[in-house]
Amino acid sequence: MAGIRDVAKLAGVSTATVTRALRDEASVTAATKAKVRAAALRLDYVPSAAARALSRGRSNLLGLFVPDITNPFYAQVAQGLEDRAAEARYHCVIASSHLNPERERHLLTSFQDGTLAGLAATTVGTDEGFTTALGATRGPLVLVDRRPRGIKAPLVRTDNRKVTRGAISQLFEMGHTRIAMISGPRDFDTACQRLSGFRLAYKAAGTALPDELIRHGHLGEAGGYKAMNELLELDPRPTAVFCFNNLVTVGALKAIREARLRIPVDISILAFDDMNLFPLVEPPISAIDQPAYEMGRAAADLLLRQLDGERGLGDVVLPATMIMRESLAPPSTR
Amino acid sequence: MAGIRDVAKLAGVSTATVTRALRDEASVTAATKAKVRAAALRLDYVPSAAARALSRGRSNLLGLFVPDITNPFYAQVAQGLEDRAAEARYHCVIASSHLNPERERHLLTSFQDGTLAGLAATTVGTDEGFTTALGATRGPLVLVDRRPRGIKAPLVRTDNRKVTRGAISQLFEMGHTRIAMISGPRDFDTACQRLSGFRLAYKAAGTALPDELIRHGHLGEAGGYKAMNELLELDPRPTAVFCFNNLVTVGALKAIREARLRIPVDISILAFDDMNLFPLVEPPISAIDQPAYEMGRAAADLLLRQLDGERGLGDVVLPATMIMRESLAPPSTR
C-alpha cells in the first residue's frame, strides 16, 4: 500500500500539505488539492484515519441521522457528507426518524455495537432516554443544524438569528408593519434562533409584535398549510409571512393558492431554506439559503478530524444568504 | 415478552389474522389492522421475523441503496420502506452512491459482514464487480425501480412502458407531431422502458420518429438543462418534450425559462415523476406520478416476507397515473 510520502512525491508537495489537502483545509489552494487527490487516487492511497481504522478492524462507515429525508435540506447535507467522507475512503449511511423520537432512539440503539466509526446527527428527541442513547453511541459525534439540550459535541450550523433579523428588517424597510411567522417546534433551537431574529427585527423597527402573528410548532407541508390558513383568517391579515423552513413554505403556498390570493400583491412570502423549484414558482419565491451541501462537508470534516485524534473542536458557523426573488414587495395600499 | 396469542386475545381476532394484519395483507380490513397494531404496540409485541432475528443475534436493520438521495422519488421510497419496516420492529439505513458505481461497490462491500438483515436496492453499477458484490450481500434482496442485468430477486416497479405510451398518445391526440424525449442512460431499464413506450406511441400514431428528437444519457438538473438547450436549437423546434424523470425536468424548465419561451404556448412539457412544487410552477407541470411511498412499503414487505421464510416471490408492479396540469396544450398554429 502506498504511503503518504509516495503521494507527496508524486504530487510534488510536502507530506504536511498532503494531510491538509486531503482534510480539505482552507489553507491549501484548490489546484493543490486537486493535484494531491489525483495522486492519492492514482496510488490508491488510504489516508491515515481510514488506514488506522481498517488496520484495527474498525468500521469505515459514518452515520448521518436526520429527522426527515424527504426534506431536501437534509438530502443535500447527506450528499456533502458522503462526498467529503469518500475522499478519506469512508462511506456513509443515513437514518431518518421521520420526526419520531421513539424510532430515533431505536435507531441509535442499533448502532451501539460499533458498526459506525462516527455519527453526524440532526435529532428530534429531547427526553432522557434519547440523551442516554446518543451518549452511548461509540466514536466521534458531530451535531448538524441543531444542538439537543445537554449534548456536548461540535455543531455545524448557520447564523440563523442574524440572517433572519436582517431579512425581516428588509421587509420593514419595504413598508410592512404586520409580518407573521410560521415557526417550528419550541424545542428546536433553530426555530428559537430564527424566531429570536424575527423578534429583534420587530424591536429594531420599534413595532409591537402581537402574539397572533406567531404560529408555533409547525412542520412539513401539512403544518405550513394549516398555519397559513389560520393567518389568512386574521383581521387585518398580515401583509407578509416568514416561513421557518422549506416544506412549511410549500404548504403555505398551497393555502395561498387555494384562497386565490396573489403573491406579492395580496401577501409577501419569505422562506427559510431554498428549493430547486423556488425560482420557477409563480412568482419566484424569495428565500434565505443555507449552504446545506457545505454543512454536510464540514460535518464529515469534523468527524474525520476526531478520527485522526483531534479533540476540543469548536462549532462551525457558515453564512446563510438572502436570495431576493419576486415574492416580496411593498404592501399594497388598498 | 408478549406472544402472538396475547395480541390476538387483546385485539379479539385469531392469531392468523394478527400475522396477516402485521404483514399489511390486503385481505385484512384497515380497521382490523389498526386494532391489531394498537394491541401489538400496547403489549410491546415483536413479530416473529424480528423476534427470530433477535434471538439468533441477527441484525434488525434493513438497508436501502439508492443512486441519489437528493432525488425526492428515492426519499419517498425511503419513507415508505421505513414506515413499513417499523411496523415489524425493523429499522432502516439508506446509502446513496451519488450515481458513482465505484462508491456503490464499496458500500456493498461494507455490508457483507451481516450488518444488514436485508437489502432493497436501486443500483447504478453494471460491471461484473458490481454483480459479484451485490450477490455477496447476505440475506434477502429486493430490487426497486430497476433490475440490474443478471440479478435475480423480486422487483418493485411501475409499468413504465404502458403509462408512457398512453401519455404520449394523448400528446398526439392534442395535435403534436414533433414530440421530443430527454431520456436517461441506455443501461437503465427504466429509461429503456419509458423510451419503448414513447416509441410505441409514435408507431400507433403512424408518425416517423427522427433520431434528433431523442436525447440519451441525461441525468439530474444539469443533464436536463443541457438536453433541453440542444432541443431548442433544432429547426423546426419540437412542440412538446417528455422528460424521463423529475430532476431532468427541473433542468429543462430552467433552460426554457432562460430562452424566454412560454409553456405551453411555445412548448408543452410532460414530466415523469411528480414533485411537491410542480402544481405551483408557472404554469403547473403535468406529470406521470409513481406511487414512490407505496413502492417503498412494498419493498419492505417483500423483505419481511423473505425474512419470514417465504421464497419464490414475484415482482410487484404498481400503477402510475397521469396528472394533467397546464403545461400541456395543443401546439400553437403560428
TrEMBL record, chains A, B:
Pfam families: LacI, Peripla_BP_3. It comes from the Bacteria. The keyword Protease does not apply. One of its GO terms (molecular function) is transcription cis-regulatory region binding. Residues 2-56 form the HTH lacI-type domain. SUPFAM superfamilies: lambda repressor-like DNA-binding domains, Periplasmic binding protein-like I. SMART domains: HTH_LACI. Keywords: DNA-binding, Transcription, Transcription regulation. This is LacI family transcriptional regulator. It comes from Polymorphospora rubra.
